[in-house]
Amino acid sequence: MNSNPTITIQGIIEKKENSLFIDNYKVSIKETLHIGNHSPSGFSWGQHGSGNLQVSIAVLLRMFPRANEELIKEKYKLFSEKYTSAWGVGPFVVTLDKKAVANRLQIPFEQ
Predict the structure, then answer these.
(1) How confident is the model at residue 109 (pLDDT cuts 50, 70, 90)?
(2) What is the Cα–Cα distance from 47 to 53, expressed in whole angstroms?
(3) Three-class SS of residue 33?
(4) Taking Cα atoms as reference points, which of 41, 59, 52 lies closest to residue 86?
(5) How far apart are CA 9 and CA 94, in angstroms?
(6) Are the C-beta atoms of 9 and 21 separated by less than 8 Å?
(7) pTM of this prediction?
(8) Opening angle at CA 4, ends 17 and 103, nearest 5
(9) Euclidean distance between CA atoms 93 and 101, whole angstroms
(10) 89-108 exposure pattern, b = at least 16 Cβ within 10 A, e = fewer
(11) What is the DSSP letter of 100?
(12) Which of 42, 74, 76, 92 is the most buried (most CB within 10 A)?
């Protein structure tokens, strides 16, 4: 388990697909589809769309690995609204405080 109080998320625009890195780990879209199958073709951000929802699922799964999947299913749309939709449509790097996100989304926080 990562006891770091922050998480760094990076989105890279590539010709074939967008890449999402969380704490330098390249996330596969396949890792998120069991929670919600909104955009099986890839990640996107900075908008209110299907790829944005997949990013939200990926981030919450990595940020709160001990949370049960039902809680992630309940919170990822709110995370999308509050965070990923605001990241712009181009490449980005953002660092989030895990405890602040947990408080904002009302997710129990465990370090």
Answers:
(1) confident
(2) 9
(3) coil
(4) 52
(5) 5
(6) yes
(7) 0.90
(8) 85
(9) 16
(10) eeebebebebeebbeebebe
(11) H
(12) 76
Is the separation of the CB atoms in 68 and 21 below 8 Å?
no
Kindly give the pairing relationship between strand 19-22 and strand 25-27. antiparallel
Place of tokens 């006891």: 3
State the Cα–Cα distance between residues 43 and 39, nearest whole angstrom. Answer: 7
Tokens for 94, please give them.
Answer: 């953002």
Residue 101's identity, in one-letter code, is: V
Is residue 6 a contact partner of residue 95, using CB atoms and an 8 Å limit?
yes
pLDDT digits 0-9 by tens, 22-38: 999 999 999 999 999 99
Domain range list for the chain? 9-105
Cα 77 from Cα 100, distance rounded (Å): 17
